[in-house]
Automatic annotation (TrEMBL):
Its EC number is 2.7.7.27. PANTHER family: GLUCOSE-1-PHOSPHATE ADENYLYLTRANSFERASE (PTHR43523:SF2), GLUCOSE-1-PHOSPHATE ADENYLYLTRANSFERASE-RELATED (PTHR43523). The record marks Q68, W107 as: Could play a key role in the communication between the regulatory and the substrate sites. Residues 17-287 form the Nucleotidyl transferase domain. Coiled coil: none annotated. It comes from Jiella endophytica. Pathway: Glycan biosynthesis; glycogen biosynthesis. The gene is glgC. Alpha-D-glucose 1-phosphate binds at Y108, G173, E188, K189, S206. Gene3D superfamilies: Hexapeptide repeat proteins, Spore Coat Polysaccharide Biosynthesis Protein SpsA, Chain A. SUPFAM superfamilies: Nucleotide-diphospho-sugar transferases, Trimeric LpxA-like enzymes. This is Glucose-1-phosphate adenylyltransferase. Homotetramer. It comes from the Bacteria.
Amino acid sequence: MPDSRPFAPLARDAMAYVLAGGRGSRLLELTDNRAKPAVYFGGKTRIIDFALSNAINSGIRRIGVATQYKAHSLIRHLQNGWNFLRPGRNESFDILPASQRVSEDQWYAGTADAVYQNIDIIEDYAPKYIVILAGDHIYKMDYEIMLQQHVDSGANVTVGCLEVPRMEATGFGVMHVDENFVITDFVEKPKDPPSIPGRPDVALASMGIYVFETNFLMDQLRRDASDPNSQRDFGKDIIPHIVRHGKAVAHRFNRSVVRSAMEPDSEAYWRDVGTVDAYWQANIDLTDIVPPLDVYDRDWPIWTYAEINPPAKFVHDEDGRRGMAISSLVSGDCIISGGSLNRSLLFTGVRVHSYSHLDHAVVLPRTDIGRSARIRNAVIDRGVHIPDGLVIGEDPELDAKRFRRTESGICLVTRAMIERLSY
């Protein structure tokens, strides 16, 4: 695969290490059988594809992915979609499940431990730099720019940060920085977040992205592993220690965010799709005329496993039975057979039968929507068969009895929930 840019010197000496072991319990039943990074997003990708694509597009050709919770779906996706890196080209792609390599009774105890337990693999590749990434966020970012700042600043660690309204930062790890963006304190989920110097209403929230020189990080991980009081976590242990005893520098996301060439002044798009509401909204956002996240940008593509599928198909043209979609995304192998869509997103292989109507619906792969069904403001899990005539999203009390309904009115529907309706 060619570089998206002709020259990326620091990235060539870097390894990306993706932490993809989290359950994502706030996504409720969507993560009953898959880890959060393996959850479907955007019609044909998985959440983890964004961090991996950022690495590839930045020029990084050595990648490791640490998995743990219900990892089969994630591992299968990685094997199918990310097997193009070749050792003969000084490339590598390692899937690193928690395998009790350090101790027979110890899985990954925290984010730092998920790296520590694979030190021998990392050191065997001998990258000069290592970029630690969370595998469960939606964004586009050029890590080469962050690597360059890390080298230029002489930092021991560079921390990727979002600029957010100060009182919205209470759920993040927040950086207290000086006028040069050197981190002077790292506060986990503060009630009164510190602001950026000169900008009293803005705080710097950690993105869970860290750049280290590899040898320095290995020393820190060994030191942390010997501390019986450590929680083996980057945000709680490693980063605060470096802030106190070394030099930690904040990297602002808006310096390295990849925007569409068509919308160079668009927002610095980053989303934690960790709740059903946030997940639904981020997918529905893609149906905007000009969405804040450009998935059509060929200069910074989102790589994924590309299934071999026939095109989407729309059939029937009668009043009330017209296969049509308005402001919607429809993936390959979908058949819209006399049904209609509005502001909806359909993943691969969905069937929408006659007289049915979907409005602001996110429908995961291989789902079947029965005749005359009406679905509004919903997420339908993979492989669900919606019975003929079922109505979702119109009666809040009935929805809450049958399905998972959030406070904002979004319904999550799974196969088990539909099966219970027949009893």
